Amino acid sequence: MKLWGKIRSAGWPFASAMLGIPLLGFFDLISGLDLSFSIFYLVPIYWLTWRYGLLPGIFASLLAAVIWLSAEVLGGQTYQIAWAPYWNMCVRLILFLSMAVLLDKVKTNMERRRLLERLFFHDLLNLTGSLRGFAELLQDNSLPDKVAVTQLLAETTERIIDEIETQRIISAAESGDLAVEHEYLQTQPFLEMLLSIYRHHHCAENRTLVLVEPVNNFLLKSDQELLTRILGNLIKNALEATPEAGTVRIDCRSGDDETIFSINNPGEIPKEVQTRVFRGGGTTKGRGRGLGLRSIRLLIGALGGKIDLVSNTAEGTTFLLRLPMAPRTLNSRQ
Asked: CA angle at residue 207 from 204 to 210, to 5 degrees?
């Protein structure tokens, strides 16, 4: 429905591109068999795919393959093999479809990269603006509490470094160059370390962050730095989505062939947002969070895992991080 609305609003440009394919077939027919128009069939397919997406590109590819076949048959092309024209049509169709799919993928990656860069520079400018403000405050000799400002300056600097490192990791994951360094870690101390960090985060003010009892302790092989970044972002998102006096619950369990981390917070994500929240087209907390979740899924993929979302009125919203490494049980604290 969304695509159809976009096509209807496009009006004559879309119609002209579609009508251009039969027109090319007509010129191909009247020019005879000596002149080739094959390259020109790619032009409307390219334009429709780039402008309107993959589905119009697929439809244009089908139409171009059929029109090309019709122009050859009506033009008197002879074949020694009866099924040769249909074989040729299929080969051309595969060529057209391959171009449409690759073009759509290139466009999607370009849009995603532009969105990532825009958000990165937006956040970086905000943080550097704060940094400049704190530096100006420190130049004021009459400032009564320079220690507090110095602390804020240090915290802002750390956030800038973290933003740059996050962008570096995401860019490496996008290009397939992210190096994953697996090591053994104990899940209980690991989660307690995460909670000790985010209980003091400004997002956790007037909110409760707890581990679900009993806390199972596993020996898990994963990239600790990457897993810390992934779970930390999920915890921060959950805290931001939680109303004051609400509780965010963290859990870790093992299955037959996977380890499951879960982050639960009160509140339901609307159904229409759930379907696109990992694609960057939906958000649960304003601008940026949908993109963040898409980046989180990208990093989880680098660990060989996946992320699921369960959200309803009764149980709230739960993000499930599934890692395909079977843990080795150490103990369970009751």
From this structure: 90
How many Å is the Cα radius of gyration of the chain?
A: 28
CA distance 330 to 324: 18
In 3-state terms, what secondary structure has residue 3?
helix
Is the pLDDT at 145 greater than 60? The verdict is yes
282 in Cβ contact with 276 (< 8 Å):
yes
Do the Cβ atoms of 328 and 219 come closer than 8 Å? yes
pTM: 0.63
What is the reported pLDDT for 159?
77
Report the C-alpha gap between 44 and 175 in whole angstroms. 30
| DSSP β-ladder status, 208-211 and 316-323 | unpaired
Architecture of the domain defined by 183-333 = 2-Layer Sandwich (3.30)
Reported as a single tens digit per residue, the pLDDT across 22-57 is 888 888 888 877 777 778 888 889 988 888 888 888
pLDDT in tens, 81-94: 888 888 989 999 99
Q: Which of 257, 271, 248, 255 is nearest to 319 (CA)?
A: 248
- CA pair distance 124, 131, nearest whole angstrom: 10
Cβ proximity of 14 and 52 under 8 Å: yes
Cis bond upstream, residue 214 (ω within 30): yes
Q: Which of 226, 231, 143, 110 is nearest to 179 (CA)?
A: 226
The H or E element spanning position 40 is none
H helix intervals, the chain: 2-10, 12-30, 42-52, 54-74, 84-138, 146-175, 187-198, 224-241, 271-274, 289-302
Task: Give pLDDT tens digits for 272-282.
Answer: 787 777 765 44
Q: In 176-260, where does DSSP find H-type helix?
A: 187-198, 224-241
Q: Domain ranges in the chain?
A: 2-109, 113-175, 183-333
Residue 69 one-letter amino acid: L
